[in-house]
Amino acid sequence: MTDNTQNGRQNIYKPAIMKIVAKRDEAPGVKTLRLEFQNPADHEQFKQRYRTGMFGLYGIYGEGESTFCVASPETRNEYIECTFRQSGRVTAALASAEIGDLVTYRGPYGNRFPIEDFYGKNLLFIAGGIALPPTRSVIWSCLDQRDKFGKITIVYGARTVADLVYKHELEEWQNRSDIELVLTVDPGGESPDWQHRIGFVPSILEQAAPSAENCIAVLCGPPIMIKFTLISLGKLGFNEENVYTTLENRMKCGVGKCGRCNVGSVYICKEGPVFTAAEVSRMPAGDL
Amino acid sequence: MTKILLRDKLDDCLTRWHAAGFDVVGPVRKNNISQYATVKKAGELDLGIILPDRTLKDLFFPQTEPMFSYRISKQKIDTEEYLPPGRQRIIFGARACDASAMAIDDPLFGWDYQDTYWFKRRNETVIVTIACTAADEFCMCTSLKLAPDSTQGSDILLRPLGDNRGWQVEELTDRGREAFSRIEALLEESPAQTAALADVPIKFDLDLCREWLQNPENFESHFWKEISMRCIGCGTCTFLCPTCHCFDFQDEGDTYTGIRRKNWDSCSFALFTMHTSGRNPRSTQSARWRQRIMHKFNYFPGKFNLNSCSGCGRCTRECPVDMGIIETLQEITKLSQ
Question: What is the pTM of this model?
Answer without folding.
Answer: 0.94
